[in-house]
Amino acid sequence: MINRRITLIGPEGTNLYIVFQFILFNVISWFTLYTSIESLEFNLSNLLFRQIIFSTIGIGIFFLTTYISINQVAELSFFFILVSTILLFGLLLTEPIVGVNRWYSLEAIGIPVFLQVSEFSKVFVVAYLARVLSGYENRLIGYSLIFLNIILIFLQPDLGTSFLFVSVVFCMLFLTDIKFKQIFLISICLILLFFIFLELDLLGQYQIDRITSFFTGEDFSQQQSRLSISSGGITGTYIQESLDLNVFVPVQSTDFIFSLYAKNFGLVGTAVLFVLWFLFIFRVLIIIQQSELIYEKFLLSGVILMLSIQILINLTTVLGIIPLTGIPFPLLSLGGSSVISTSILFGLINRAFIENNIVI
Questions:
Q1: Is the distance from CB of 14 to CB of 66 less than 8 angstroms?
Q2: CB distance 301 to 172 below 8 Å
Q3: Cβ contact 146:125 at 8 Å
Q4: How far, in Å, CA of 129 to CA of 112, rounded?
Q5: Cα 28 vs. chain centroid, distance in angstroms?
Q6: pLDDT 10s digits, 292-346
Q7: Average pLDDT score over residue span 250-258
């Protein structure tokens, strides 16, 4: 391994474009959340202050991740998936929080934070799946561990995140030599498993209500979200009318933050956000094309798919194209676990730039 000097922005070779875009996405989130609060107060009850704290931690995690080589990620991926499995299983034994088992509360140790394990499982599953598809792991064991994680997330219950994981896994399978017949059989098994869980009443009632309200066209949140987006016009309303959105859209700082962003910054701001994400994805695709390491190719493909599908699900939810999922918009939605897990994914991408000596 080549030894690299440590600079103010990380190891020598750190890609400035990736660093700039990563920080810019965080800053965009700050400006968006600023329009949803009446004032900035330096306490954890203030949404903007909390997100700034999360982003600051995320930026630190981003640079720390950059010091971990891709080979080390491959070697540790089996350990990662075991940790993910244990933590997800442990959640089912905890007391439900707002009716679901998705978070570990750290309040017992004096930290007013809730840790959402499924967000970190996004990193662990992608890293391990890349190892399995690269041929470094027994596929039967590998797929079993991955789908066990998905089932444990589904049982929390978290239908949206489990759907995200299934989507990423299936897209990754299409990148391999696996036969279409095998993918079809897996699909049938998952569909049957879903209906079995439905019959056993393992889905939360609120999830069933989300699905039924979508098909009946009665979901208030999505109706108001579309109204909010359309009210942004070409250039947006920004601060003048943004506080009125509190009346319109529930959970506007998390699941529906894109409607808040579109209202404030309009079509122009939305176009800028999409262009930034397109440029980011395009740069990563260049690494995937140029990399000679099979594990790195699969890892980066998984990272891009995880981020892209997450954005796609969030947007289609906000626009009312699919039922409510609870999937956040990466680095835009409020949430510490989401910000930190996404920061790790960005750090892995930056590491790939460094190891391939790519300057774009």
A1: yes
A2: yes
A3: yes
A4: 33
A5: 17
A6: 899 999 999 999 999 999 999 999 999 988 888 889 999 999 999 999 999 999 9
A7: 84
In this structure, are residues 68 and 351 in contact, taking their beta carbons and an 8 Å threshold?
Answer: yes
Integer Cα distance of 208 and 205 in angstroms = 5
DSSP-assigned beta bridge partners for residue 100: 97
Would you list the domain boundaries of the chain? 6-356
If phi > 0 it is left, if psi is from -120 to 50 it is alpha, else beta; for residue 167 that is alpha
In terms of residues, how long is the chain? 360
Residue 97, beta-bridge partner list: 100
Record the tokens describing residue 20, joined without a space.
């700039």
